[in-house]
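Appendix B: complex inputs.
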Amino acid sequence: MKAAEFDYIRADSVAAACEALAAAGPGEERKIVAGGQTLVPLMAMRLARPSLLVDIDGIPGLAGIDSVDGVVAIGAMTRQRAAELSPAVRSELPLLAKALRFVGHPQTRNRGTVGGSLVHGDPAAEIPLVAVALDAALEAESTGGRRVCPADGFFETPMVTAVAPDECLVEARFPVWNAGRIGTGFREVASRQGDFAIVAAAAQVALDGDGTCTRVAAALGGVAPRPVRIAALEDALTGTRLEDRAIDAALASVEAVIEPDDDLHATAAYRGRVAKVLLGRAIREARDEALA
Amino acid sequence: MTEKAIALTVNGELRRASVMPRMTLVDLLRDMLGLTGTHIGCEHGVCGACSILLDGVAVRSCLIFAVQADGHSVTTVEGLGGGDGRIGDLQDAFWECHAMQCGYCTPGMLIAGHALLEENPEPTTEEIREAISGNLCRCTGYTQIVEAIALCAARRNGEDGR
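Resulting structure:
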C-alpha cells in the first residue's frame, strides 16, 4: 500500500522543526520523521495520515553519543545500529547494547533511531524498556523551550508518550552505574528473531565485594500499556546474595504490577507466566555476569 | 502537495527527478529510474525484498520516501555486479549454490549478504542467519542462501570453499 498525500520539509535545526510543528492548523496532524521505520509503515497502511512530515535527519548535533560525568547521552537521531556498535554504550550501558540486538533487523536498525523508538512508545519495545529500567532522562524541545521528562511517567498508554505534538525529542540521557560489580540481563520471547516482543525482561544488578546485591533494576515490557518497573522485587532482592531461591520468591511480586492482555500472539495468562520466567532468567544472567 | 526536485547518486551516477513526497524510494528506483532489480514485496518493511544500500548501509527502500534520499547515495542490486554486465562474486556464489528458486527475494538477499561481508568478512553460520533474518524467502530456500554467502566469504578469504 502507498501512503496518502502529504507535504514534506527538511528542517535544518531543532528550532525550525519545532516552528513547523507549532504552525499546524486546527485538526491538522504534523509529524516528525526521523528514521521512519515505524511511521512509514503506519503511513503505508493509512493508520497515520499526517499532512506534513518534518524530516529531522541531518540536523547538526542531533545524532551522536557522549559519555560525561556518569551519564551516557544519546542524541535522538542516533541510529539504533550506531548505538548498538558504540564502544561507550557497550562498556557503560551494556543493558542497552544487549537490548538493541532484539530491535527489528539489521536493515531497520541501520535506519531506525533511538529517539524515534522512545517517542513511538510501543509497550513491547526494547529501548523504552531499558529507559524505564535505568531511569533515563528524556529531553524534548518546543518553541517554548526545553524540558526534561523522567522515563518514569514518559510512557503513558500504547503509542502515547509525554512528548506533545509540537515537541521534538532531542536527547536521552542514561545514568551509568559505577559502584560495585555490574551485571546485566536481557531476555525476550518473540515469534521470530526481530519480531515485536511478546514479553521482554531487563535486569541490571550491582554486587559488592562479597557478592551481596547493593542495587537492582528490573523491568518488563509487553505486559502492560507501558514498560513497568517491578519495584517490590527490587526492594526484596537488595541486600540478598541473589540466590536462586531469593529470586524465585521475589518474582511473586510481578503479578501485582503487570496488566497483560490477550491478543492474537498470546493470551494474558501466557504473558503473565512468561514474564516471571524471563525476568528470573534476566536477573540470573545479570548476577552471573557480575560474579564472572 | 507539490512535487520536489531531488538529486541523488544511484550506482555511482547522479540522477535527478521530480517526485511527490509520498513516493517511496523503491518506486522511484523502479518506475522513474528503470532499475527493476530491486523488488517490492510487502511495502511496509517486513519482507526485505526492497533492500538497498543507502550511503553504504543496508536499508529497506519501501520505508524511505524518495525525498528523504535527496543528496544521498544509493546502491541497488544492479550496482553489485562486476561491471560490463558481469555478475559479482556474491552473485556467482548464489548461482553456484542454487540459492534461489523463484528469485523474488534474491536482490534483497544479495544486498543483505553484501552488507554482512563488508562488515564481517568471516561470518559464522549463525551470523549469516542473523544477517538475513529480515529477508523473507517464501520458497524457504534459506539453506542454500546461507551456503552461498559462506562460499563467497571463503573465496574472498582465499579458501576453496567447497
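Chain A has twelve helices and 14 strands.
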